[in-house]
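Posting for a labmate who doesn't have an account.
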Amino acid sequence: MYIYVVCLRKKNYKGGNIYEYPLVTPTELQIGRSIRDLQVALNAGITSVRDVGGLGQYLSILSNEKSFIGPNIYYAGKILSITGGHGDVHSLPVDFVQDYCPYSMLVDDISECIKGVRMNLRNGCHLIKIHCSGGVLSQLDNPQDQQFNDLEIQAIVQEAKRVNRIVAAHCHGKLGIIAAIRNGCQTLEHCSFLDNECIELIKKQTHPIIIVPTRWIMEEFVGKNIVNVKERPNGLTDFAFKKACEIYDQHFQSMKLAIQNQIPIAMGTDMLMRYGSHAEELQYYVQAGMTNLQAIESATANGPLTLGPQAPLSGQIKEGYDADLIGLYENPLNDISILSQDKNIILVWKNGELVKDLR
């Protein structure tokens, strides 16, 4: 079982802004493109995905009724964000963002935070996602700044916990990371400025915490394009590329620190393009200090940890667990890159059903 951070497909945006895409593209087109991407993901051995902000609710219904054959989809619904925060598209009118953005919801006090949780629960979400820090793609906020105050985060976490949901926290900067930890969030997404103080705080908590690094998107935005800026992905604005470059090195060091301190990690990619290349994320974990087996565990056994009480019995070969399995030409314990090439994945079973067979 692979669980990763799945986003909407964004391609061919010459001169555009990928953060605006979901608001200016018909939902029907987005769903159609996402279906194709999810089929590619399953073909690459991704049998389950965690959608932490997007159209997962609708795609899950279509997948469950077998309108298309894709991965199992566990979704958060709309990400909760403050007005002017990372979930706000600053270049567009705020009312338009609030009414039409499919991946975020703007909430600004405790009562609105609670209502936001309840709205997502009404749509059957498996977890809640919030922005605890600024981000890269959003224009006017700083990844180092905390978003939501402690009382608001506590209200969200408590309301989610009441109905057995956990809270996933987008957090780049240290202030956002610490706020997420001390107020009860259970998954930390990105963690670009994790340090020893954050590590010690994680170890002191009584609630489980798991990190989802999403190194893939940093390499896609910066690592593959840092020599020739003109080759960066279409639709990535100048300000977003600048912020990604500022975070790039520190993000890798933070990931290494988490691995050295044996903080649980689940594979996540924050994927925006090149569906089917999800397992490239595992190569970065190995570069940062994981063994090949540990990297594989991050994509299988650790995946359900990102769903808390809503997790299925999956990710392990055990009696009573989902029969999600893949067959390979070669042994990934010898070469982790084997998993990132779909030609090497010759068999895929989802829930016991053979959905790919290249024998």
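Reply:
Got it, the structure tokens are right above this. Residues 1-15 have pLDDT under 50 and may be disordered.
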